[in-house]
Structures are given as structure tokens and as C-alpha cells.
Amino acid sequence: MNIAIIGGGAAGFFAAIHVKTNFPEAEVTIFEKTSKVLAKVKISGGGRCNVTNAAETIEELLQAYPRGKRVLKSAFYHFNNRDMIKWLHKRNVETIVQDDKCVFPKSQQSQSIIDCFLAETKQLDIHIRLNHVVLALEQSNNDKIKLSFKEGSEVFNKVIVTTGGSPKRKGLLWLEKLGHTIEEPVPSLFTFNMPNEKVTSLMGVVVQNVQVKIQGTKFTASGPLLITHWGMSGPAILILSAFGARELFHRNYLFPIQVNWIYMFDFNNVKTELIAIQKTHPKKQMQKLKPFGLPNRLWLYLLEKLQISPEKKWIEIGNKTINKIVNILTNDTYDVNGKTTFKEEFVTCGGISLKSINAKNLQSKAIKNLYFAGEVLDVDGITGGFNFQAAWSTGFVAAKLLD
Predict the structure, then answer these.
(1) CATH of residue 392
(2) What is the pTM of this model?
(3) Whole-number pLDDT of residue 45
(4) Helix spans in 281-353 (H)
(5) What is the Cα–Cα distance from 200 to 188, expressed in whole angstroms?
(6) Is residue 155 located within the same domain as residue 7?
(7) What are phi and psi of 53, to 5 degrees?
(8) Is residue 403 in a domain?
(9) Are the C-beta atoms of residues 173 and 351 closer than 8 Å to each other?
(10) Which residues contact residue 123 at a Cβ distance below 8 angstroms, ignoring those fewer than 6 apart?
């Protein structure tokens, strides 16, 4: 049996390794269009490789995926995050779990993962052919698949496409022409630009347990928020960008957001807490007693935004001013105008529609013996190791090559 893997990234290598494991007699070849393999693995997590997430249950894992839950639920029962950690440990790649449940190799080097994969492919005698661009794919005789390259054409019994996310639809046209439905690719996991907001003067400030909402929609996210020199970033923003990816694309990245700076506190008790501060420390200047553990720079900024003198004493403000403070703490608003890619880790919402594949084995409904794995599918997760886990799990399932 002759099997081709198109794409030398995370899903491609993992699929190839498991195809060869499942079918030792098969000849397995990875075709990579560039001169380097596992490029995204190399740069992920700032070069440390956030290889998966330590979510405790499959249900918890699934909550991290704005798209693709149906396919992933099935895939995770075959191979999930715990399986991936065990797989690495068996190959002497120890891992560590951070407080935020992100899992990294103990070496803190993505090269540990790359070396592991390259060693596996060498041991299993998997062929890797660089600078090989697939120009065409077509069904051949006996349900085999013919791949055409600049160097010529070859026929395979099975093919797995693991080409990753395509920023533009044109990158998926060759698959669309075969009869697959394409969900329009749009960016996911990005930060918010706020060129007209003074909040950017607080660059470097991190606020824990913030809730952010896209005004006029159901999209909300919570978690830490980082203020940058261009706008806002951090987990809360990245999660919101992932779940709202398509909506924000249609809005041309022009939209207002509402920020609850003290989301961890009960809204109904916010005013009570402020009144208690006023009674307990009436002569304290407002700048010297910040409520709810807010960063000092943020508290001073909010006072300025409300046109409240920071030298004013707590006893000197009335009920109307307290209401204004409650409102800005729980319902502050900002205008977003544009986006910025999160580091080098470009993630795409969109790709091969899940309606075009068999959810159980990831085989194409249009071309027999053609399978898909990884981000080429309309599957994507939030930051935290979830996108790699989707690659491992779908690569594992596609490698079963079941008809």
C-alpha cells in the first residue's frame, strides 16, 4: 500500500507516524511544499511549543473549540490530551503543566518535539520529500488517487491532506474543485487595535479576571487582559476573537466592546463595597485607595476618564459619582478599529466544511480514499495548546484509513 501525506506540519507528521504504525508494510511519504517541516511547531509558544492542554475531561477540552466540536468529540475518544502526554513520555519527552494548564516539553524547547517526530519517521522509514507542491489531485483507476507535481505524477492508494490553515480561499480552490464545500477562511486568535483610545497609554498593565463583550452580540469571554501600545490582548481578548471570528470579519474589525474590569466580583455588591470604602476611609484620597485590587495605573486612568480629581477624598463624592464609578468598573466601553495577529501563531477559522467529510474517519465524501486532518478542516481552538491537540487527534484518526 502506497500512502501520501500532503503537508509536513504537526498533523501531517502525526498522521504519517500512525499510518506506518497501523500499516507497517505500507510505503508512507510526506510531501512538503517548502524547504522546512514542522515550522509552526518550531515557533509555537515562543519557541517552547505548547504541545497540548491539561484539561481534565473531554467535555472541558471541547469548550475550547469555537468550531469543530462534533468531529473533535469523536476524535478525542480515540486519542486525547492525556494520550498525547503518554505518547511523548514513552518516547522520553517529559512534559510540564503550567498553572494555566498549558503543557510544554520539560526542556522548554520546541526542538524536543521536532527531534522526537523526526526520530520516529526515521525509525519507521517514512519518506520526507521537501519542495514538492501538489499541482493537481484526481481519482484514478480502482479508486486510487493520482497526485501531480512539477516533477511528474504518482498514484497512491490513500492520501491524507494536512496542509494547515489557508489565509485565503484561493489556497483551497484545488480541494473545492474536487467537490468539497469550503467555509470561508477568516483570521482567528488576534488582538484588538484601538488607535483612538487613550487606554493604550497603560501599555503593560495586566488585569486579572476581566470580562469582555462584543457590544450588540452574544459573544463574551473572561480571563486576564493585557493592555498594549496598540490596544488590548491577553487570553480574554484572544478567546473573544476566536469565538467571534466570523462576526468580526463581517464587521471589518470595526466594533465597540464592553469591559467589566472586576468580573470576579458580584455586580450587585460593587456599589455596597464602594460605599463601605467611603465609610471606612472617608478622608483617604481616591488615588491612594484603589478598590477591588485594580492596578494603580488603571484606577488613575478610570478616575481621569470620569473627570474625577485623584486628590478628591472618598467622603467628598456623592451617590451620583459612585454610580458612575460602578458603571465604568463593570461596563467600560472602547472602540476597536482593526486587529493584529497574535505573535507568529496565525490561526484560521474556516477550511474544508465538516459537511464534506465523514466525521468518524475524516474521509472525504467527494473523493474515495482521500482524508483530512488538522487545521485544513474547519476546526480551530483558542490559545493554550488546543490547536495542536486537534492536529494530533485528527491525524491519529485519519491514520486509521478506514473505508
Answers:
(1) 3.50.50.60
(2) 0.92
(3) 87
(4) 296-305, 319-330
(5) 22
(6) yes
(7) -130, 150
(8) no
(9) no
(10) none
